[in-house]
Amino acid sequence: MGSVLDLEDPPRSLHTDEAVRVRIHQRYLRYYGERYADTILNMLPRSIVFLLTYGNVASRNTIVDDCGHITGVVDWELAGWRPDYWVYMSIMRPSQEENWQSRMDPIAIQR
C-alpha cells in the first residue's frame, strides 16, 4: 500500500480503515518521533469507503495540456484499495517540489 508500507516482515495486509490509521500512526512515530504521539490518530480522517486509488501523486506523473487541463496520469504501480481520503492526504503531505502546496490548496477539502 504505497506510503504505508508495513514495518513488519512479512508485511501485513490492511483490510479496515482502523488498520490503515494504526499503520500510519506506527510509521509516523518511527520516522517523525513522538511529538504528536497522543494526537495523531485523532487528526486522521475516518472512512468506511475504500476506493481504487492512485498511489504516487506528484506533478511529474501528471500529463497536462496547453490549457492546464489534466489529460492523463502515469506511474500506476502503487495503485491500490485505500480509504476515500487517501488521495487528499497524499497530496497534502510535505513535498520537495517547488510550489506543490500552493497548487494543491485550491483542491483541498473544505472543513
Summarize the structure.
The protein has helices spanning 17-32, 40-43, 86-92, 100-104, and strands at residues 50-53, 62-64, 70-73, 80-83.
Question: Any chance you could write out the topology, listing elements then pairs?
Answer:
Layout: H1 17-32, H2 40-43, E1 50-53, E2 62-64, E3 70-73, E4 80-83, H3 86-92, H4 100-104
Antiparallel strand pairs: 1-4, 2-3
Give a quick set of tags describing it.
two-stranded antiparallel sheet, 111 residues, single chain, alpha+beta, 14% strand
Relative helix content: 25-40%
Q: Largest sheet, if any?
A: 2 strands, antiparallel
Gap from first CA to last CA: 27 Å
Q: Please tell me the overall pLDDT.
A: 78
Element-level helix/strand string: HHEEEEHH
| Radius of gyration (Å) | 15 Å
* Structural class determined from secondary elements: alpha+beta
Number of strands: 4
Which consecutive residue ranges, at least 5 long each, have pLDDT under 50?
Answer: none
Total number of helical segments? Answer: 4
Inertia-based shape: globular
Give, in spatial order, the strands making up the sheet with the most strands.
1-4
